[in-house]
Amino acid sequence: MRRFLLMIFLLAPALEGLAQLTRYQAVFEVSDHDFADTITIAWERGQVFVPVEIDGCSYRFLLDTGAGMSSVFKGSRLAALCNEVGSIVSYDGAGRSDTVGVVQLPPLMMGSVSLKGCRATVQQPSSAGAAIDGILGFDLVNGGLSVKIDVPSRQLIITDRWRLFSREAGTISLKYHLNYHVPYINVVPFGRHKERVLFDTGSRQFFSMNKAHFDRAARKQDKAQDILVEGRSWGCHAMGHHGVEAEGEVAFIQLDSLRLGRYVFRDVHCMTTQGGSHIGAPLLAFGAVMFVPQQRRMYFQPCINEQPCRVGNSQLEIAFVADHLGRPQVGLVWEKGIPYQLGFRYGDVIEQIDHRPVGSLAQLAGWGFQRGREYVFTLLDAQGERREVRWVRLP
C-alpha cells in the first residue's frame, strides 16, 4: 500500500498536467445571420494578411490554412488580452509537434462581423520577419463559415450562406479531407501519380513534395520524361512553429505539368521536403479559392481561363533557417544557383551584413534588401572559419 501511495504521489504532477489538456474546438458565435461580408486584404511577399479589430485596436493577422487553430504570439500585447483555457498538442508543417497553451480571444471584428469565443494557440514569435500580430487558422472554416480568398481582387469574403459560392462561374471543384484539422486535396504532379497535398497559405512555395513520396513515385514511373531533376543537395528549408524540418537530401525539380482537378499548370519549379507535400499561397496569384465546410469542398476559380497555364516560377536557390541558437543559417543552397557560385554553403551562419551584426532569422528577413545593391555577408562555417561573400540581391 505504501508503495502504491508513493507512485500516486510521484505521478500527481504529471496527472495534473494531463488534466489541463483541452480538445480541439472550432466553435464561436457570429454576430450576424444570413450574411456575406467583404474584407479588404493585403498581399505581400506572397502571403495574405487580414485586418482584425479587437477592443478598438487594429491588428494584422496572417491567413494560414495550414494551421488548424488561430494563434497569438507569446509575450505580445494581444496575448495579454486573452484568457488561458488549457493546452493542446500542436503539429506544424515541418513534421514537429509540441504542447502549447490555448487561450480564448476577446471578441474580434472582421469587417462588420463580430466573432465571439474563438480560441487560439500561443506560439513563439514569428521568425519570418513579417509584421504580424497573429494567425488566422482553418478553424475559421471548421467553425462553419464559408470563405473566398480572392487575391486578384484583394478581397476576403466570409459568409454563413454555404450555397453562395455554388453560383460562382468557372470554378474547379475539389473534395478536401481534414487531417489534423487542415485541408488536404489531391493533385497530379506527373504521369498517373496522385499526391495528397495540404493547401497551405502559410507557405510561400508553389508546390513541395514529400521526398519519400517523390522517390517512390519516380521509381514507379521509371523516371518519366516529364520529370526533370535539376539538381540535388543536402539540407532543410521548411520551418514550422516548432522548429526546422529534418535534414535530408533535397531534389530540385521542374514539373512539365501539375494538375489541379481539370486545371493544368505548366513549367512548375519545385523541390522535395522531409515534411508533408503541399501547395502554398502562390496558387492564389492565379485565381480565387473558396472553402465550403458543409460540402467539404474547395473551389478554385482561375483568373486565366486558357489552359494550360504557365507558372514559370524561379527555382529556390538558397533558404535560410534558424540554428539551435536562433541565428540565421544557410539551411539549403542549390549548387546551380548564384549564391552557391558566390560562396554560400550549407551550414554557414550569417553573422554580419555590411559589418552590422545579424542576431536572428527575423532580423535577416526584415533587413530590407534593395534591388541591385551589393551587400557584404560575413559567414561563419562549421569549422569556425569566417569569410566574406559579396552578393547583389535580386527578387
Summary tags:
395 residues; disordered N terminus; 9-stranded mixed β-sheet
Portion in strands: over 45%
Oligomer category? single chain
Number of strands: 34
Large-scale geometry:
globular
Topology (SSEs and partners):
Elements: H1 2-19, E1 29-30, E2 36-40, E3 42-44, E4 47-54, E5 57-63, E6 70-73, E7 83-91, E8 97-104, E9 108-110, E10 113-116, E11 119-123, E12 134-136, H2 139-142, E13 146-150, E14 155-159, E15 172-175, E16 177-179, E17 182-190, E18 193-200, E19 207-210, H3 211-220, E20 227-235, E21 239-240, E22 243-244, E23 248-260, E24 263-273, E25 278-280, E26 287-292, E27 297-302, E28 309-310, E29 318-322, E30 328-333, H4 338-342, E31 349-353, E32 356-357, H5 361-365, E33 374-380, E34 386-392
Parallel strand pairs: 5-12, 6-11, 18-25, 19-24, 24-28
Antiparallel strand pairs: 1-10, 2-14, 3-4, 4-5, 4-9, 6-12, 7-8, 8-11, 9-10, 13-14, 13-26, 15-27, 16-17, 17-18, 19-25, 20-23, 21-22, 23-24, 26-27, 29-30, 31-32, 31-33, 33-34
